[in-house]
Recover the amino acids of this structure.
């Protein structure tokens, strides 16, 4: 009898699973290169829960973390073509189509939280034109995810001045950041975020450029021993959806997704300062040195960076000039 009851309960469980798996009217897959424990992964989880709750299960959100489906550089094409409904990519991954997006990596331009918040506000003179330009790639921007400021990672000594960069191979994650490294005397190497750990471990590069939260989520404290707080760029990720897919949804489902996106964006933006502070504290507890360059060192970096701005003005066209003008007024 007990065996029969157990079998019966398994049958009902299987039936319930089958029913639940067909309950959703819409499936939204999201690809992200970072692990779920990262703050961007947790932000997606917050979005997922909110969407599924508000839609009463009509929309199912599936998150594929740690580059299971696509690497960061592959996300824009995958989402734009409709190979996947949605994905998270570093903003700089759109630089091939829209060179002006690298405004955020112009060295020391957006060098305060106040300036960054104004720049990334929905519909601002900076974000508005960028979101509009991304529509041309076949994607709709759902929300921006704050990742924090760019820092330098190294082993055996800090990178606090351009002279410390000379002759060093440096991991970068964008063309403009590569130009900054070159202007400072280093040799840039483009390496995906998910491949950072091995690159540092194997000595493929001498120096790393990343957001400090990555030191915690990717355990980079195991392969590097020094963080230099250059804060030379603002790292932004964006969550995009395939436009054809998104526009095919009912007005109610679109509203639910956009409302949840707005909530998720505010949540991660409000938390990023605390997240960075926590990452610095963890890094120190793991034996990493945290070095802050002097004002003179920063000025030396700024002086070396002049060619980066000239290249941006040349390559980013009318939109780039428009964004630089808007940034100068922040």
């Amino acid at each position: 009898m007990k065996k029969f009851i157990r079998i019966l309960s398994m049958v009902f469980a299987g039936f319930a699973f089958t029913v639940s798996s067909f309950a959703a009217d819409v499936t939204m897959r999201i690809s992200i290169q970072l692990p779920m424990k990262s703050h961007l992964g947790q932000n997606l989880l917050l979005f997922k829960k909110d969407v599924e709750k508000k839609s009463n299960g009509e929309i199912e959100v599936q998150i594929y973390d740690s580059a299971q489906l696509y690497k960061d550089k592959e996300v824009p094409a995958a989402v734009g073509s409709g190979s996947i409904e949605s994905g998270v990519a570093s903003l700089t991954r759109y630089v091939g189509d829209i060179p002006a997006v690298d405004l955020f990596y112009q060295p020391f331009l957006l060098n305060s939280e106040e300036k960054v918040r104004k720049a990334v506000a929905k519909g601002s003179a900076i974000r508005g034109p960028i979101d509009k330009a991304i529509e041309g790639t076949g994607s709709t921007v759902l929300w921006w995810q704050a990742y924090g400021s760019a820092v330098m990672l190294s082993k055996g000594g800090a990178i606090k001045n351009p002279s410390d960069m000379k002759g060093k191979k440096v991991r970068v994650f964008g063309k403009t950041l590569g130009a900054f490294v070159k202007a400072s005397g280093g040799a840039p190497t483009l390496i995906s975020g998910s491949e950072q750990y091995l690159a540092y471990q194997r000595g493929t590069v001498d120096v790393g450029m990343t957001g400090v939260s990555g030191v915690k989520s990717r355990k980079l404290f195991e392969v590097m021993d020094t963080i230099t707080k250059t804060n030379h760029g603002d790292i932004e990720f964006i969550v995009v959806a395939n436009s054809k897919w998104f526009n095919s949804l009912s007005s109610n489902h679109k509203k639910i997704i956009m409302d949840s996106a707005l909530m998720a964006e505010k949540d991660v933006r409000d938390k990023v300062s605390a997240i960075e502070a926590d990452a610095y504290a963890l890094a120190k507890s793991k034996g990493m040195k945290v070095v802050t360059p002097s004002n003179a060192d920063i000025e030396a970096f700024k002086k070396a960076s002049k060619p980066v701005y000239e290249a941006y003005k040349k390559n980013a066209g009318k939109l780039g000039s428009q964004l630089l003008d808007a940034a100068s007024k922040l």
